[in-house]
Amino acid sequence: MSSLLKNTIRFILFILIQAYVLDKIYPIQEYIKPILYFLFILWLPFNISRPALLIVAFVFGLCMDYFSGTPGLHSSACLLIAYLRPFILNILLPREIAGTSYAEPSIKSMGFAAYGVYILILTFIHHVYLVFLEWLQFGDLLFFIGKITLTTALSLVLILITEMLFYRKAKYKTNTA
Amino acid sequence: MRNIFLFIKKFFVFFLFLVLQVISISILITYNKTHQAIFSGIANEMTGWVSSKYNDVEYYFRLKKTNEDLAAENSRLRTILAGTLDEPDTTKLSRIDSLLKDTLGRVRKFNFLPAKVVNNSVNHENNYITLFRGSKQGVNTNMAVCGPDGIVGRIVSVSDNYSIVMSLLNHNSKVSAMILHSNYTGIVEWHGSDPQYLELQGIPKSAKLKIGDTVITSNLSGNFPEGLIIGTVTENSIDQSTGNYHLKLKSATNFFTIQFAYLIENSMWTEQKQLESKSIVNP
Predict the structure, then answer these.
(1) If interface means Cβ-Cβ distance under 8 Å, which residues of chain A face chain B?
(2) Domains defined for chain A, CATH in brackets
(3) Tens digits of per-residue pLDDT, A114-126?
C-alpha cells in the first residue's frame, strides 16, 4: 500500500474514531477526556517535507474542529506539534537512520525508549496548548493543571493500546526501492 | 530586496507556521465571539451529512427509550388538552383551538417545529448539538430549543438543511430561570463539571426553597415560553461573598440520550427586540 493511500485512510479513521467513538464516551470526570486523534501527525512518514507537514496538520486539525464544533482549536494545537516534530526527531535519532532505513516513527524503527520520549513530549505539548486555549476562555488554574496531567496520562494509555492493537509492520526501506 | 527574499526563504517553514497559526487562532476567536465560523455553511452540511449517517445506526440502539419518551410526552400533552376536561355545565364550552388567531384576538405566539438530533456532544467544554432542520425548513438563529423532558438550548448557526444548537452544557449559555411556586428568578449556567447537573445563580438567601423544587423558565427567558422545565434542585449551599444561594440542578433533559428536539419559533421576537433596541440606550 502506498504511503499516500495509507495516510489518507488513517486521516479519515482517526477523525471518525475521535468524533464518533472517543467523544461519545460518558465523561468519567471533568478533567479526563480521551484524546487520540493527534497520533495521526506523530505517525506521518519521516521523509515528509516540513511545509507539507504543516499544511497536512492544519487541514487535519480543521477537519477535526468542524466535527467537534470548535473551529480553530484543534488545528492550532496540531500545527504546534507538527512544527516541533522535526526538531524532536532530530534530537532523538541520528540523521542517517531517520531518513533512510524506516518509513515512519514506530517502536521498531526508533526503539522503545526514543519512541516513548517522542510520544510523551509531543502529547504533553499538544495537551498543554489545547488546554491553554480553553483556559484563556474560562480561566481556572486548577482546571488547567488537572486537565493537562490527567488527559496526558489517559492519552498515553490510549496510544499504548493502539500500538498493541494495530501492529504496524515497520517497512524497511532498501536502497533499490 | 534580495536579502528579504533570502530571509523569507531561509525561515519559510517558520513563517508558514506563524501564518497558519494566526489563521486558526483568528478562526477560533471570531467563532467564540459570534458563533459564525468561516466556511460554517459548507462545513455544517458536510459534518451534518456524516453525522446523520452515524445517527442512523446509533438511533436503533435508543429506539425503545426514544419511543418511551415520546409516548410519555404524548400522554402528558393529552391530559393538558381541553377535550379531556369533564364539564357538566354546558353553558361553558371548551374548544381545542388550532387557529393562528382566535375570535378573541389572541394570537399564537409560540410555534413548535420538531427536529431530529443528528450529532450531540457532552464531554467538551462547550457542547453543541446538530439538528436535521435548517433555514429551508424555517429555522433562524436565536430560536429556543426544548426536548421532550425540558429545555435544551438555543440555535447559534444555521445552514440550508442543518442547524447548530448551543446546548445548556456550554460556558456561554445563560438562561433566565425561576423556581416554581416561589417565583424567584436567577440564571442557569454550566461550569463544565458534570453534564447531568446545571447551576442556578442569583437566588437571594431569603427565598424559601427545598431540595427537589422544580426550576422552570421564567417570563424573562427571551425566546423560551414561560414554564418549561429546566431541572430540579439537588443541592443548595449559600455563597458567603454574595449572600445568594448556590444551587445545583439536575437537568431535566438527559443530554446523553436526546434524539428529538423541538424548535420554538417566537413570532413576536423581532418586534420585541426592535422595541428594546430603540428604547434602551445602554444595554
Answers:
(1) 16, 20, 23-27, 30, 33, 50-51, 54-55, 58, 61-62, 65-73, 75-76, 79-80, 83, 133-134, 137-138, 143
(2) 3-165 (1.10.1760)
(3) 899 999 999 999 9
